[in-house]
Specification:
Elements (H helix, E strand, L loop, with lengths): L15 H25 L3 H8 L13 H11 L3 H12 L3 H19 L5 E2 L2 E5 L2 E2 L2 H4 L3
Antiparallel strand pairs: 1-2, 2-3
Helix pairs in contact: 1-5, 4-5
Length: about 140
C-alpha cells in the first residue's frame, strides 16, 4: 500500500502595487455605482436592503471549503451583475439595472476592503491576501 500524495492547494495572492491598484479599482467601482444609482433615482431603502444579499453566499461554506469558494466566487464575480446590466439596458428594465448597480457596488466595497475571490483552502485565503484572525496573527 502506498501513501497518498497531497498536492498543496494554491493560495497565491497579489501583493504590492497591483494589490493596491485592485483595491482602488474596487473603491472606484463602489463609488461609480453609488453615483449612478443616485443619478438613476433609485430608492436608498432598496439599496440598503439588497446591498448585503451577495453575502448570503457564505452559506455555501456549510457544504465545505471547496463548495463555499465556488458559491462565494460566483456571487462576488463581475460576470453575473454585468449580464444583468446588459439585459437591463437591452430590455430597458429599471429593476435589472438597479439590481446590477447594487450588486456591483457590493463587490466594489468588498474588493476595496481586501475581501477577494476565495481559494478552496478556506474562507481566509483570497486573491488579495489572507483575511481574518489567522492573517492578523501573522500565521
Amino acid at each position: 500500500m502506498t501513501d497518498a500524495i497531497t498536492v498543496p492547494t494554491p493560495t497565491g495572492a497579489v501583493s504590492g502595487g497591483p494589490r493596491l491598484l485592485l483595491r482602488l479599482e474596487g473603491l472606484t467601482l463602489f463609488l461609480g455605482m453609488a453615483v449612478l444609482y443616485a443619478v438613476w433615482g433609485g430608492s436608498w431603502w432598496i439599496f440598503a436592503a439588497l446591498f448585503l444579499v451577495p453575502d448570503l453566499s457564505f452559506l455555501g461554506y456549510l457544504a465545505g471549503p471547496r463548495t463555499g469558494a465556488v458559491v462565494y466566487n460566483t456571487a462576488h464575480s463581475y460576470m453575473a451583475p454585468m449580464v444583468l446590466n446588459v439585459l437591463g439596458f437591452g430590455f430597458a428594465s429599471p429593476l435589472l439595472l438597479s439590481i446590477a448597480m447594487i450588486w456591483l457596488a457590493h463587490i466594489g466595497v468588498d474588493r476595496a476592503l481586501g475581501y477577494g475571490l476565495k481559494y478552496s483552502a478556506g474562507f481566509g485565503f483570497t486573491h488579495l491576501g489572507r483575511i481574518g484572525r489567522s492573517a492578523a496573527a501573522g500565521s
